[in-house]
Amino acid sequence: MIDILHREFIYLFYYFSVQLEQIFTYWLLGMIIGSAVSVFGKERIHRLFSGLQNKRLGVLGIFLACCLGIVSPLCMYGTIPIAASFSEKGMRDDWMAAFMMSSILLNPQLIIYSAALGTKALIVRIVACLLCGFIAGLLINIFYRKKSFFNFSGFYEMKSHDTDPNILLRFLKNFGRNVKATGLYFLMGILLSALFQRYVPADAFADLFGSNKGFGVLMAATIGVPLYMCGGGTIPLLRQWLFDGMSMGSAAAFMITGPATKITNLGAVKIVLGTRRFVLYLSYVIIFALLIGFLLNV
């Protein structure tokens, strides 16, 4: 029994160390760039978004709001107070919906992480997230043009943690907070990936998520809901799944439903939407994830 456990430990350690070596650089680079954007670019990004409100941009404004949402480094709980201040200044709900939806799905740090999945998967993720935010903004523009969609009462812009007068210390403190927030999930993701590689037959996985493309998309969209805890933590899993035969459509569905239904994001969104519009939000996310997955698998 001890020999068996020792053998399995060696196998798992080998798989863990190999995957850590392959993906660590992406994680570290993502942390560095994410902290740099947060410390040096966050205020500029928010000023650019705020500057859109008095311009007659129409549909282009929705697209620009999506782009700014993706490059914004804040989490959802950080984005909502910012959005509340924008709303107080008269920002349109459709532009805010596009900004917030895109911000939920992607950020500069996660873009760098996702490069570990390969160029095709990275492009699919960026385009799918932009499209999801853009369509969300269009729907708000069509159905909520004359009534409010959000309720930001009680939200106030949070005080920034990046206040150290020494610019290098400001960056290092932000980097340290990022490591603390994501490091454990990143290691857990690699461990789960090693367990998956060791004990789940690649052929069986390929049949479930690759050959049976329609059912695979549905399954991937479904498991994205409970499994997604941290973007960096799911990258090792996705990387292994794609290697073992997961279709790109299934991966895209997972990458949409995962961050959009992450428990911390759901809690924040529920507060500003209320029950009825929160149900609309969940329905939209799931339908969009399934459609984008099916389209990619055609």
Polypeptide structure, described:
- By secondary structure, the chain is an all-alpha fold.
- The protein has one domain (1-296).
- The protein is 80% helix and 0% strand.
- It has 12 helices and no strands.
- The protein is globular.
- The N and C termini lie far apart (48 Å).
> What fraction, in percent, of the residue positions are helical?
over 70%
Separate helix tally: 12
Total number of strands: 0
Structural class: mainly alpha
**How many domains in all?**
1
H/E element order: HHHHHHHHHHHH
Main location: membrane
Transmembrane segments: 12-37, 57-83, 95-116, 122-144, 179-196, 216-238, 278-296
Keywords: Cell membrane, Membrane, Transmembrane, Transmembrane helix
Family: Belongs to the UPF0718 family.
Summarize, please.
Helices cover 80% and strands 0% of the residues. The chain is mainly alpha-helical and 298 residues long.
SSE layout:
Elements: H1 2-50, H2 59-71, H3 76-88, H4 93-105, H5 108-114, H6 119-143, H7 167-199, H8 202-211, H9 213-227, H10 231-243, H11 248-260, H12 263-297
Helix pairs in contact: 1-2, 1-5, 1-7, 2-4, 2-6, 3-4, 4-6, 6-11, 7-10, 8-9, 9-11, 9-12, 10-11, 11-12
List the main descriptive attributes of the protein structure presented here.
Permease, 298 residues, single chain, UPF0718, globular, 12 helices, mainly alpha
